[in-house]
Design the sequence.
């Protein structure tokens, strides 16, 4: 059966939320990111892009390129709330959806055309999202994730694009190979050195040439250039999570030791999140008492993958949950509401040294093992 995949992407998400809160920003160049010269641009408005500003650019450079822009230190808590609102609207309407990141979703509409026109249904969903959230959003609709995502990029800003199967190649061929997911700066430079700039040129290469140049990823890119992508839409569920538990050899009431174990588990999970390039939006703490009564409590947080935020939340939840002063048999922590995304310490944190410290610590753990490095406060629990 031919699939029907919808890709939804909120346009310049952080900027759009800021404009919703402060309409004076509408139509003006806006840059969101770290406010110091050592900060980086998280996102920027289309007006700022006209001056050459783009994501991940040093804030200092952005200020030189567009000094008249309005620079804003972002609010991840605010953006997370709007992200969840959009997800709730989608969950209320879609048969199967996957939350790929804080601002984009895939929906599998396969088979829906027997009852509804999929393009009309997608249009109505987009209108509902804009009406209830106040945010602009674009969509691409086609037979797989790759084509739909590229179509969304072409539909922006605030547009819709439906690519029917017979027209996939004619749609993709004139586009830059940079439009293909997986093609980063280094791969693009290599393809250009091979004389390949357009998807149509890449599509006509022998697949063995791409495999020889880039290995298996080269073959995957070639398939995408030909409009082929069998990757499924993975249903987004609250149980999509990662967790750890510790059962004590002897029941204990030593709160300091329990918190040490809890902190060590969170530190381990934080490393796993960053390794998998994911962020968590909810922290749950679990306690099992000596009489086997089990209780848990959760707290939603701005999406993050960093230990100091997760640990602080876990400690606060534990303090609220542990109020019986009974012996504890087991303690556990679960991170849920996971979304894909480039882990950053705080998208708007100006503390570059702390960001570099996390990166350095993770590299050591990846090379020598997860237990090779730990905070002093958790080392006895490792």
Sequence:
């Amino acid at each position: 059966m031919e699939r029907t995949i919808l890709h939804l992407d909120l346009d310049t998400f952080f900027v759009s939320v800021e404009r919703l809160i402060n309409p004076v920003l509408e139509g003006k160049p806006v840059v969101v990111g770290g406010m110091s010269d050592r900060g980086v641009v998280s996102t920027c408005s289309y007006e700022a892009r006209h001056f050459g500003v783009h994501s991940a650019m040093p804030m200092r450079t952005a200020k030189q390129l567009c000094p008249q822009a309005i620079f804003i230190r972002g609010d991840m808590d605010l953006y997370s709330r709007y992200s969840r609102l959009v997800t709730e609207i989608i969950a209320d309407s879609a048969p199967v959806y996957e939350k790929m990141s804080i601002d984009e979703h895939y929906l599998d509409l396969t088979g829906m055309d027997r009852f509804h026109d999929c393009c009309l249904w997608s249009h109505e969903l987009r209108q509902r999202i804009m009406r209830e959230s106040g945010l602009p959003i674009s969509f691409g609709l086609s037979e797989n994730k790759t084509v739909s995502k590229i179509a969304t990029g072409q539909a922006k800003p605030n547009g819709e694009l439906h690519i029917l199967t017979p027209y996939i190649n004619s749609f993709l061929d004139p586009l830059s190979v940079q439009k293909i997911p997986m093609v980063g700066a280094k791969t693009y430079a290599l393809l250009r050195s091979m004389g390949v700039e357009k998807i149509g040129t890449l599509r006509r290469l022998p697949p063995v040439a791409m495999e020889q140049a880039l290995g298996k990823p080269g073959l995957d890119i070639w398939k995408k250039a030909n409009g082929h992508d069998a990757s499924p839409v993975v249903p987004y569920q609250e149980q999509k999570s990662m967790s750890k538990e510790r059962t004590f050899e002897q029941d204990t009431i030593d709160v300091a030791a329990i918190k040490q174990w809890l902190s060590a588990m969170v530190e381990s999970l934080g490393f796993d999140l960053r390794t998998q390039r994911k962020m968590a939006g909810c922290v749950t703490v679990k306690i099992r008492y000596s009489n086997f009564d089990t209780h848990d409590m959760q707290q939603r947080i701005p999406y993050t993958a960093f230990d100091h935020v997760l640990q602080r939340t876990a400690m606060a939840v534990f303090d609220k949950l542990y109020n019986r002063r009974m012996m504890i048999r087991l303690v556990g922590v679960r991170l849920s509401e996971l979304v894909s995304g480039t882990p950053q310490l705080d998208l708007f944190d100006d503390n570059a040294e702390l960001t570099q410290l996390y990166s350095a610590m993770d590299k050591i753990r990846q090379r020598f093992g997860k237990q090779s490095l730990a905070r002093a406060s958790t080392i006895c629990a490792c």
Remarks:
- The chain has a mean pLDDT of 89.
